Amino acid sequence: MSSTQMLKGIIDGCILAIIHEKEVYGYELAEKLEQYGFDSFSEGTIYPLLIRMQKEELVSSTLKKSTAGPKRKYYTLTQKGEDELQQFIARWEKLQSNVNLCLRKQ
Amino acid sequence: MKHGLSKKSQTFLENLRLYLFSNGKDEKEINAIVEELEDHLMEAEARGKTVDHIVGESPKQYMMQLSNEMTTDTKTWVKFIILILFGALSYSILTNAVNGQLSYSLLEILGSIMISLIFIIAIRSLFKSVAANSLSKAKEFTLFYVVGLLPIALFVGLFYFNRLIETPIFHFGSIGTILAVVLTLGFLIGMSLWTKTWVMLIILALLVFPDFLFRYIDISPETQLILSTILTFGGISLYLYVNHKMSKQQTN
């Protein structure tokens, strides 16, 4: 299994966590993900995910003037998004400890 | 805004817009995502990254991913279909009325509707394939031309079948014909005002004008047919192409 396949679903949670930290726009978000070590996937992948999260009302967006000129779309978490993030953290912790148990104490 | 972008990125954004449009996506959503990606690409290129880094290895697959998440707005396409269907109808009424009273056979009516629908489907798949696969300019132009000629070929076919097969005929009579022409002209002008585009009138003029022109020029009927076909569909292709380029410039 490639790491891209493993990432599916997990990357959603990470995006929520990054937006939770601070209001971001697309490029910033991609850059943050890269900084955290997710460099195997192409940056554009975040946009289909962001569109879906917006439809699911996990994030909302506002247009703001940027220094460069064109308006920029900034994302923030909705209440539903905050809840989803908490659930993701709980799921991830459970999953992580299960995987670790499997790998270490066979 | 866009001049900062590399040619490759610009082409990608143009193709994406065309692809999403052909898939019947909501116009507002299309503009939003294209603007967002444009902003992203500008910032990425300023830091020395290329479009491949953002889009991945297959632009086609990336376009599909985006398309799958976006809302389909069938209203726009229904509007186009109605516009083309009524456009074909108006053309037929105007050209036939010039030559006398209107009468249509059942086969003609059904056939014309079918041909219009085939043409719409052909245009739509043409847009999609041109957007998703990077073709050479020559190939692109050939494809556009072939699809432009498709309805002519089908109408010629219909014309011959109509002679072979007998179906009920609807006669309009002289008052009916005048009424139909007035209604058609009224409809055309109203439509142009409502949609704020003169596309239908321009295309109809391109379709009817060559025939008028050739009445006053002495050339053989064969040359006439070929010339009027080339003029008409060449003119329409050119008009659509220029219009497409212009609307893209406006939105950027």
UniProtKB/TrEMBL annotation, chain A:
Query: InterPro entries, alphabetically?
Result: Metal_resp_DNA-bind_regulator, Tscrpt_reg_PadR_N, WH-like_DNA-bd_sf, WH_DNA-bd_sf
Residue ranges of the Transcription regulator PadR N-terminal domain?
A: 15-87
Question: What is the superkingdom listed in this entry's lineage?
Answer: Bacteria
Name by which UniProt lists this protein: PadR family transcriptional regulator
- Report the source organism: Neobacillus novalis
Automatic annotation (TrEMBL), chain B:
Which keywords describe this protein according to UniProt?
Membrane, Transmembrane, Transmembrane helix
- Name the residues that span the membrane: 77-98, 104-123, 143-162, 168-191, 198-217, 223-242
Pfam families per the UniProt record, alphabetical: HAAS_TM (PF08006)
Q: Does the keyword Iron-sulfur apply?
A: no
Q: Which SUPFAM superfamilies match?
A: BH3980-like (SSF158560)
What's the domain of life for this entry?
Bacteria
Q: Where does the record place the HAAS transmembrane region domain?
A: 92-204
Xref: PANTHER family: MEMBRANE PROTEIN (PTHR41307:SF1), MEMBRANE PROTEIN-RELATED (PTHR41307)
Any idea what this protein is called?
Answer: HAAS transmembrane region domain-containing protein
